[in-house]
From TrEMBL:
Annotated organism of origin: Mariniphaga anaerophila
Keywords: ATP-binding, Nucleotide-binding, Translocase, Transport
GO molecular function, one term: ATP binding
Protein name: Putative ABC transport system ATP-binding protein
CDD domains: ABC_MJ0796_LolCDE_FtsE
Length: 231
């Protein structure tokens, strides 16, 4: 099943009287269950593409079909609705609520999604189990290590069962041993059938994905199956 269809996507930014062409005609499809890394040098358009895929921004031109729905020209409110329903975000900074426990942080997205109160705690607990934090549920972020915080953020991103898990430099704030742990967790999440799209400028991280797309100057330079994903 096709989850993402990008057809001749362009994105221009106006800076004073200049127009920056951040994306020039990107066309690509991503299918359910794929694990994709988007790579490229600084300025190649990774964040711009990520923002469009994640419905944080709309393209200047072209068509984006997400799960059979055309999301190319939606209002901010419509985009927010789609985001909440379809996308789980993981960032370099964990964005956890500092005064809330891991469990409360993971329960929060279900409040917005209208999950019944009775079910929220159970689902959050199950998801924290899945990311290996069974014995840290009642800790606050400042009582957790960086890797554990990122696990909470990953649980929060997954708890509403999004169509895509979208990760932007997910290990950017972690040392290499902990990063590898997080990559193992991603492999696990992928194995369970989730669709993962990860933006990274590090080859060591990208080589865990099963497909690697390289951007250059706002275009797809290469789009290849990784013959030897790490896990
Ligand atoms: P990457 O994430 O690969 O570093 P970006 O998507 O951030 O690339 O940037 C692509 C191009 O678009 C760059 O030339 C960048 O300067 C420009 N750009 C990105 N965001 C903006 C913005 N909000 N306003 C103007 N130019 C931008
Ligand atoms: P709302 O639904 O009220 O518009 P936000 O715009 O704060 O809420 O967030 C909507 C989604 O976008 C959330 O899933 C959140 O994780 C994500 N998000 C928030 N801030 C950023 C950011 N700076 N970059 C990328 N994604 C973000």
């Amino acid at each position: 099943k096709k989850i993402i269809h990008l057809d001749n996507i362009t994105k221009n930014y106006k800076v004073g009287t200049q127009v920056v062409r951040a994306l020039r005609t990107i066309s690509l499809d991503i299918y359910e269950g794929e694990y994709v890394a988007i790579m490229g040098a600084s300025g190649s358009g990774k964040s711009t593409l990520m923002n469009i895929i994640g419905c944080l921004d709309t393209p200047s031109g072209g068509t984006y079909i997400l799960n059979e729905r055309d999301v190319s020209r939606l209002s901010d409110n419509q985009l927010a609705e789609i985001r909440n329903a379809e996308i789980g975000f993981v960032f370099q900074v964990f964005n956890l609520l500092p005064r809330s426990t891991a469990l409360e942080n993971v329960m929060l997205p279900m409040v917005y999604a209208g999950v019944r109160k009775h079910d929220r705690k159970q689902r959050a607990t199950d998801t924290l189990n899945d990311v290996g934090l069974t014995d840290r549920m009642h800790h606050r972020p400042n009582e957790l290590s960086g890797g554990q915080r990122q696990r909470v953020a990953i649980a929060r991103a997954l708890v509403n069962r999004p169509s895509i898990l979208l990760a932007d430099e997910p290990t950017g704030n972690l040392d290499s041993v902990i990063s590898e742990d997080i990559m193992k967790l991603f492999a696990d999440i992928h194995r369970k059938g989730n669709t993962l799209v990860m933006v990274t400028h590090e080859l060591d991280i990208a080589k865990h994905a099963h497909r690697i797309i390289k951007l250059k100057d706002g275009e797809v330079e290469t789009d290849e199956i990784n013959p030897n994903p790490v896990y």
